[in-house]
Task: inverse folding
């Protein structure tokens, strides 16, 4: 319950602006912020709900925890914080949620507006989706203008896109300090993930404060590791990793590196901005048109970071991620890189002892191999 209160309090930091809840993970937050709305990305809500009672009435139990937790959050009392929804097409589960959420809010007497954008999931080398995408952005701007009661300001968009570029660059800087052992991956995750529910200006302040706390790393034997998945492991598992001398030298987490690794140049033209943003986005399983680049990108990340091990953090029932794991594991084995697959579900906030035991055994095996050389 304490985490739920923290999440809601962070959202309320938006100083009376209409709050627009966004999903999936890569919405046009700059556009909403430029038009006077407070965008919050409805992701990583595991610690912000008490149960799945309302969600389980509408969502199958074999759907991923992200969708079930999102649904519970919106249908519960916390949903009253939201003035509007925004959603675009991703996996089959998330693309079918909007009608359920809007209908449930209507039945609960909440007047929550819904905005939709279709993101073309096509191979950019075979066809050009930019004209369609730009039309979608133009239509979205018109809809938000009607909702917000104010016209779009090119200058406001330019200024806010500069702030988001600064925020993403700070994330990359903090990530480099984690790789050097100057910051813990645990603290890094806390600060970056909290940025989904606060104004970008506050996120910039928090990231700068985090970077200022960087310390020279101690001389010891570390296992350099990459973590991959939709979400990072629960914090107790991250603590166990770092306690066993596992250093996260890079990550391929959708809610971390995949989100902040690329930022378009600031501009006053949102149509061009988002054509650039979605065309050059870090490859992610939730963006199907980037799927062909995933294996090469992950393998290059492992090679460039000098990783000796890779942790795959699977969100149970996330089919897109699970298609990749077996092939990536084989590719890593061929290059002598160890890997460990950890599967997390909706009840793994508290029940993580089994995962911790596996992490400790994996670490001890690798460390014993290093010391035996």
Result:
């Amino acid at each position: 319950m304490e985490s739920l209160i923290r999440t809601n309090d962070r959202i309320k930091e938006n100083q009376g602006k209409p709050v627009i809840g966004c999903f999936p993970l890569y919405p046009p937050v700059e556009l909403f912020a430029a038009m006077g709305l407070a965008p919050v990305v409805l992701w990583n809500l595991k610690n912000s709900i008490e149960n799945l009672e309302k969600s389980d009435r509408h969502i199958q139990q074999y759907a991923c925890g992200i969708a079930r937790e999102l649904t519970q959050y919106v249908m519960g009392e916390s949903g009253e914080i939201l003035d509007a929804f925004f959603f675009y097409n991703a996996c089959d589960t998330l693309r079918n949620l909007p009608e359920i959420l809007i209908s449930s809010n209507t039945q609960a007497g909440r007047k929550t507006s819904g905005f939709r954008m279709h993101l073309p999931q096509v191979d950019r080398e075979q066809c050009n989706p930019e004209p369609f995408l730009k039309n979608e952005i133009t239509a979205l701007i018109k809809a938000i203008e009607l909702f917000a009661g104010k016209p779009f300001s090119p200058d406001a968009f330019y200024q806010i896109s500069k702030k988001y570029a600064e925020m993403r660059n700070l994330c990359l800087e903090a990530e480099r300090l984690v790789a050097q052992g100057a910051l813990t991956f645990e603290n890094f995750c806390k600060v970056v993930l909290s940025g989904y529910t606060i104004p970008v200006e506050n996120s910039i302040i928090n990231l700068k404060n985090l970077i200022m706390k960087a310390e020279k790393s101690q001389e010891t034997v570390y296992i350099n590791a990459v973590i991959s998945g939709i979400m990072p492991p629960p914090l107790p598992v991250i603590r166990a990793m770092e306690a066993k001398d596992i250093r996260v030298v890079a990550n391929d987490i959708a809610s971390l590196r995949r989100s902040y690794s690329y930022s378009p140049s600031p501009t006053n033209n949102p149509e061009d901005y988002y054509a650039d943003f979605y065309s050059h986005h870090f490859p992610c399983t939730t963006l199907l048109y980037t799927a062909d680049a995933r294996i090469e990108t992950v393998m290059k990340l492992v090679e460039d970071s000098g990783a000796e091990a890779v942790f795959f953090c699977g969100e149970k029932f996330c089919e897109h991620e699970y298609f990749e794991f077996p092939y990536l594991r084989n590719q890593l084995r061929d290059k002598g890189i160890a890997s460990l697959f950890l599967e997390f579900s909706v009840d793994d906030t508290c029940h993580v002892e089994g995962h911790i035991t596996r992490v400790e055994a994996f670490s001890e095996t690798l460390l014993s191999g290093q010391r035996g050389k």
In short: The chain has two domains: 2-150, 218-371.
